[in-house]
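re: ur question from yesterday

yeah so i grabbed the chain u mentioned. its 506 aa long if i counted rite. heres the sequnce exactly as i have it in my notes:
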Amino acid sequence: MNQQKSIGALVCLCLLLGGCGRPTIGEQQAFNPNLTVGESETRELEQSTVELLKLPCDYNSLTASPWNCTDWNSRKAATLLYDSPVRLSDSFQAQPALTTVSGSGTQWVLTVRSGAVFSDGSELTAKDVNDSLTLAMAEGSFYRYALSGISEHRVNAEGQVEITLKAADALFANLLTFPVAKQQEGRYIGSGRYRYAAESEDGIVLERNPDHWGPASSIPKIELVELDKKGVATYSLKLRDIDCLYTEGASGDIRNLSTGDYPVVSNQLIFLGANNNRTNPANPALRRAISRAIDREYVVQTALSTSASVSELPLHPNFAPLAGKKVEKADLDEALKILREEGVLAEGETMELSLLYCTDGADRAQTAHQISARLADMGIEVTLDGRDRESYFNALNSGFYDLYLGELLLGDDMDLSHLFTRGERYGYGVLPSEALMTAYQTAFTTGEGWDSFAERFAQEYPVIPLAFRNGTFSFSREFSLQVNAVRSDLFWNIDQWQKPAESANR
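ran it thru and got these structure tokens back, copy pasting raw so excuse formatting
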């Protein structure tokens, strides 16, 4: 497995165990009734097409280099102007977009869609895809480290892009979501659903691209609004200066402002880590018992405000090979049975453990307290150790903990190597068995055997997964839409967006 890719991806995306920073990677998901529902979900309304949608975006930064754009909102808006080789479904499956992808192991081939053109009408070729891949892998690119497993790439004699990986990756196609663009008059243009139309008082107006290969958007025009200051996006939503906003959670402030809140699947895992260098946490039976005792649903409904999906595995519950695998309900009696039968804790005995967590965010403290209370019912007395970010990582590096509350953004190709391997800001105290690593390596490189890996993982729980965070795509009160929001493409089903007729006139 490619360690360089794993390490780099974490650094580039600012991945922080303990959740002291929350970038997310998510995919398409249908409307989640656990999130705030809008009027479109509660009553029948005549539907009308949205004529104009206002989005926060730094257009100049985006078109200067769609690969190096540092503004979060602008990267989201990039999918309107630029297509990518593939699109990801809510089950983390690559679907053809600009290209079809074939291959396995270390050898992959991208075949460009017939008839694909840029917004100026010029043909989009394999060379354009290959050149864009070069820029996506370059220094400063947001996509660089996700693609760092590539050894070489070129355009072959058949007009296809050939890619060779440093190590086999069965889900490599999932990583091909970078923008494809070409330079024109000092800016980059794409082949997306929209193209530049005109300047406006607040920013730039985009119009539907009539030459786009996909279904036509239901929204004729989109205005990209540049916000003067950071941190004003929520206020701008309130004033209706913008119509929608993506956030990395589901805050009460945003929910109170919006008619519809739509979840964005994230591959950001919240988990309980164990220090295998200490006797008690190193016992797999103890970790199994703890996993069985924790009420994940309660944690999600309370501490995480329903903006998460419970999981017993370090793989998102939407992940196709394991889709439908139900999370067992918390069972304190079963947890106690494991402790007794495995000789971990006899009846009447108690155990003391420390739980380290980062205080950057109220949800972490609440989660830690809920875990502590649950373990107390098992005879395990937990000392909570809440620390600021710097002190938190210092404690992890020194091994000064029994358990810790961690958070980690996983790759869309299900690369878990950075979770299982000790390194900077990840893999603390984790010691998976050789059998587990063999099972994982088989699944990761071949795409087969994910069930076997899941079964093996549940035997030892080198970490105890709790849930995966959701992002939230929120709309102002003027809108009540049916949205499928995908982290790599928030506008996945924009061709179907409509709003109630009573709010159709702006």
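noticed a couple things. The CA atoms of residues 188 and 453 lie 43 Å apart. also Residues 1-46 have pLDDT under 50 and may be disordered.
anyway ttyl
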